[in-house]
Amino acid sequence: MPQFPHPSEARPSVNQTAPSIAAFGLALDQNLLLDLADMALSSAKSAGATYVDIRIGETRREFIEAREERLETFSERSARGFGLRVLVDGCWGFCGSSALDRASLTRAAAKAIDNANAVKPIQHEPIVLEQLASHEAQWIMPMRIDPFAAAPHEKARRLLEINAAALAAGADFCKSSFSFAKEERLFANSRGSRIFQSRTRVYPQFEATAIDRASGRFATRASLAPARGSGFEHIASCDLAGEAKRAADEARRKLHAKPATPGRKDLVIDPTNLWLTIHESVGHSTELDRALGWEANFAGTSFVKPDMLGKLRFGSELMTIVADRSQAGGLATIGFDDDGAPRQAADFKIVDKGAFCNYQMALGQAHLIGAPRSNGCAYADSPTSFPIQRMPNISLAPNPEPCSLQDLIAGVEDGLYIVGAGSWSIDQQRDNFQFGGQLFFEIKNGRLGEMVRDAAYQGRTAAFWNALDGLGDASTYHLGGAFTCGKGEPMQLAPVSHGAPAARFRGVAALNTERRDV
Amino acid sequence: MATTWRYPSGRNLPGRIVLTKIDALLLTGNTLILSPYHPMRPMFLSPSDVKSITDRLLARSNAESCSIAIEGGEEQSLRFAHNSATTNAATETVRVRITSHIGARTGSVATTSLDDGALEQAMARSEEIARLMPGDPEFMAPLGPQTYAETARYDEAVGGLGLGFLADAAASAIAEGALRQVEMFGYGASGRRSEALATSAGLFAYDRASEVDFAATARNQTDTWSGWAGASEFVAAKLDARRVGRRAADKAARHTVPLDLEPGRYTVVLEPAATAELMRWLMSMMNARTADEGRSFFSRKGGGARLGEALLHPKLTVRSDPRDKIAPEAAFGAEGLPQRAKNWIEKGVVTSLFRSRYWADKTGQQPVPSAKSFTIEGGETSLDEMIGATRRGILVTRLWYTNLVDPRSLLLTGLTRDGNFLIERGRISAPARNLRFNESLATVFSGIVALGPSERTWRHMSRGAAVSAPPMLVEGFNFSSKSSGI
After folding, report:
1. Cα–Cα dist B419/B435, whole Å
2. What domains can be seen in chain B, in order of their start residue?
3. What is the pTM of this model?
4. Contact status, residue B83 vs residue B184, Cβ threshold 8 Å
5. Which of A241, B89, B248, B402 has most Cβ atoms within 10 angstroms of its Cβ?
6. Contact A116, A358 (CB under 8 A)
7. ipTM over the 0.90 cut-off
8. Would you call B408 and A96 a contact, using CB atoms and an 8 Å cutoff?
């Protein structure tokens, strides 16, 4: 298992101090939740369920947004509830509610059983569960400053400071926001697991806009700061006002930058852009539920078919993709997944030196590819949601040999250096993709050149990853991520993290998005 | 990082539920407030249910002004794949949002509890936040009483549906697939939600909507071709799941190898789902403020918005109306503004952009809430006639992963999906592999050749956001690259 650098080591410009491991106590009344869970489990068992599990708890969210010199929104919300899942004769049944009372739980047990019985006529393939060990545990994400305890006016002040910095540096507009979420849940199942967990995440964002009224042109530059599984210290460690100042200048430069030249080019992709490409092209294509067709009606299937397991040459020898639930700052870092599988189950390679070697799996899927057990990749975006297969942290391992960003650029005669995530799109089998970016720079004869505008890159997943011929070392590593990866019906939103070093890809189709024939 | 776990003290006292001491604010303290014995309450709320809550809360508000938004309801869903059930769910949720204003300062807090204690604490917290915030120079006091249109978006029968209704729907679609030797995958959902807003200035708005959705994807036995269809209805009896299954299965039941078309400009016949997807993007960009500020396609060079300009094809009219028969708009929109019948685009001329109350006040115009539901007026050319009139082109069933590339030009990218066919000499000649497009919405909606009858399009549990769209024949649609995705 490659060792991932701590994000702060990889990005010296981000002044992050070493986090303390001070744990915050759980806010939930554990006694009460245990009693409610026990009651629901025994109700469902006595009504005929062969397996029962429940997620019960609370998710707190805070969203603060500032527009130019004004605070536009300060919003808190708390959503609590439970989701009870039963298996009856090979059929799932599920019932969730935001009511946490005995009557609702009793009613939910009956409803979940009813639902399982209702689908029997179309349950032609029974749901089969593997054995999972039971756990009694508590896991609390370490953090230094609980974002929900930080003073509201201090959070507002920081946002207004970001906007002021951007406006002073030449932006015409700047919008900034902080999003915080804290999930506290009890997972309990009929096999004896009782697991309390708490995790917190934060996401600072801003976008500076510059306008040239005479020409009618406008350009934006969004923050490169990632979402992280962290306390408020992540916000405090990002020099967002400093970045806003640079962003304003870069947005204005974009207005007058020369257009990107389309054609096949060598790309050096910054990890602030590459994390999203990893997410879409590798993360989603290696989800077993998609490969099995379970998401065919909406999220889609995958070009990575089950018979390709152990055979597909996904990328070049430099490509090793690792799953984990332990990376510092990872949005999927946690002690147990929402099926109750321990984090160790999620320590696996998806691609090893270019060879596809593992799918991500949730409970009830492993036997379909002859695997003994799932690998800890379940998540429900709310206690009231049915848990489905979702990504752990999925990252491109850095080069163990020394290789800097400059080394990568030095190997390019005619290419582009791409920074920050922009517009994105990928086909429903996760093959044909198109990604934009925040900043594009020419590379000429091994040197970084002028900024160019209106670029994007397009490719096919396996061809792209097989064109990987240069990989930065740990000094270039960055953990990117976002709160809102959508999947499933009804759609669920999952937080996702993807780490990557800078990387070089040969002969990728670069576009100019201003041209009519793009 | 996992630690050995023990039962918390007090856990084993027989029959005892430990009630949490209410000693902290709901959202800043470290206590979850639970009332395990309160009687069950439905979460789909009637006007009188809502009013009793909002009246009580508004009476207790210590803020200078206050608004209470409540939405709640119940929903059930079912998924199936390879002709067999996979996941299902029945859920009920409610959320109360309390927004307090002290001067021009605002704090807003939401909770999923209807308990008095939790609601009072949420209110206290919203007031505390408001006191700590800087004043908002764009603050607008909550609206007073308004008059709202009656909407016809609710069917009482939907509330009585069990999961068996959706299982039957899936079974009928699976049966249609079996007749055509294709496998069926899909999703059905039904539910109802109520939404209300009350303010200290006397506004009370209530609306409700029911919804029944069903969509099916069919895939052939060699997994080399697929077809899709979907339907959304407010009224349960209107859902025809068998027809949805039949349409998806008919599209998928092809056994020839799909053609690999070269990217380039093509005549396209967009089915209503594809037309609706493109228009949703255009509607989302119709913002008066960004246009006035010079950062929108709708900005005029040198300043101002391009309202009144003929930017699109004269065949194009888009409107929203709470009394629309197919896609009725909700009764009220943002800030409690009444939704009125309005044209957004009339014969290609941009006639409305959405405008907040603040921006309307600043610019001396009327506020316009954005549209959740809208209708693209149809034409008289049927889908078959469009195909018949096409010498060489592509029939597009639906679009996937659309995303805006450039807001200046309205350049959108995305892919075709689940039913792409080559049209030659007026007939569908063969399935054609999917393609990525990069095309400006302005170009698409300026290049309309023909429109068909407008119909309600599918969107899963859109919470009342209905779109009525026609099939549309467009010349010169730009496909950028090939996709192998089936």
Report:
1. 11
2. 47-238 (3.30.2290.10), 258-486 (no CATH)
3. 0.94
4. yes
5. B248
6. no
7. yes
8. no
